[in-house]
Design goal:
Elements (H helix, E strand, L loop, with lengths): L1 H4 L5 E2 L4 H14 L3 E3 L12 E3 L4 H14 L4 E6 L2 H12 L7 E6 L5 H10 L5 E4 L5 H8 L1
Parallel strand pairs: 1-2, 2-3, 4-5, 4-6
Helix pairs in contact: 3-4
Length: 144
Amino acid sequence: CQQVQYGVHAVFGPSDPLLGAHIHSICDALDIPHLESRLDLDSEYREFSINLFPAQKLLNVAFQDVMAFLNWTKVAIVYEEDYGLIKLRELVRSQVNQEVEVHLRQADPDTYRAVLKEIKSKEITNLVVDTRPENMHYFLKGVS
């Protein structure tokens, strides 16, 4: 709010979804341009906000294209948070993927190894992973 007093011309960020929605409301009310780069599942038009992050719908289409191009018949989707499943729900429900056997597994750093072992036992070699960036190295350790 102090920045507004000093004559701020635009706001960049934040990446946090809750804080981002709050900042958007303030910028919208004060007619201040707002640039952000974060996942936002709300596709509502915003007059003073531009989100530089690709729309989840487009990312899911890209996943579908890759899966079709590589002829995947089985895939495991490993997600860490419920939010990860919400993001990928269109990928799971897609008509394009009806011929693809999809296995969903929620995992965290403590359960990566067990989940990966289960996936391996089902002879699934294709994975889509949605995890926090700071936990990716734990996931990769579980793979090896």
